[in-house]
Amino acid sequence: MTNTPMTKKLSIVVAISSNNAIGKGNELLWHLSADLKHFKNITTGHTIIMGRKTYESIGKPLPNRRSIVITHNKDYKIEGAEVVHSLDDALNLLDENEEGYIIGGAQIYKQALPFCDKIYLTTVHHHFDADAFFPEIDKNMWKETEKAENKADEKNEFDYTFSTLERM
Predict the structure, then answer these.
(1) Which range marks the domain in which residue 41 is found?
(2) How confident is residue 8, by pLDDT bands cut at 50, 70 and 90?
(3) Which among 73, 92, 65, 71 has a CA at the least distance from the CA of 3?
């Protein structure tokens, strides 16, 4: 990864389980209505950056967002999204003072984490069997600046917490 200009902001938006699981078989492990709304509120009107598998699990460019998809496949094309071949390429598409939001998957999170300023984290308080995990968050490098704990209800099957982490 080349040096990313400091004027570009990079944030991660992720929902993880208590055991850092984020998916299995290229599918989400849970459906929390509140988390989908939270994600939409954070990312609408902004640029989202994702890997090909994450894009394919969503199935289409999300409305009111600029979508950048990272893939090694040089022939991959998506109508309504920009296709690049590395995280560097994706970051180079951001305007100087634009904030990019990394939305998955596991490999992209792992590559981007060292360069992110903020993590919008949803923790689902349940252990799941999974094949995709978010990297361990080093608590010495991040401070929690916001936290909202939520109980399960008719639209949200599990207890969950919204947190915002900022790099120290």
Answers:
(1) 9-151
(2) confident
(3) 92
93 token code pair: 């598409």
pLDDT at 5 over 60: no
- Decide if 120 is inside a domain: yes
C-alpha to C-alpha distance for 112 and 132, rounded to whole angstroms: 16
How far is residue 115 from each of residues 10, 35, 143, measured CA to CA in Å?
A: 7, 24, 16
> pTM to 2 decimals?
0.93
CATH of the domain at 31: 3.40.430.10
Interatomic CA distance for residues 55 and 39, integer angstroms: 15
Q: For 83-100, how does the pLDDT look when each residue is reduced to its tens digit (9 = 90+)?
A: 999 999 999 999 988 899
How many whole angstroms separate alpha carbon 75 and alpha carbon 23?
A: 26
Tell whether 3 is covered by a domain: no
Number of domains in the chain: 1
Separation of first and last alpha carbons in the chain:
21
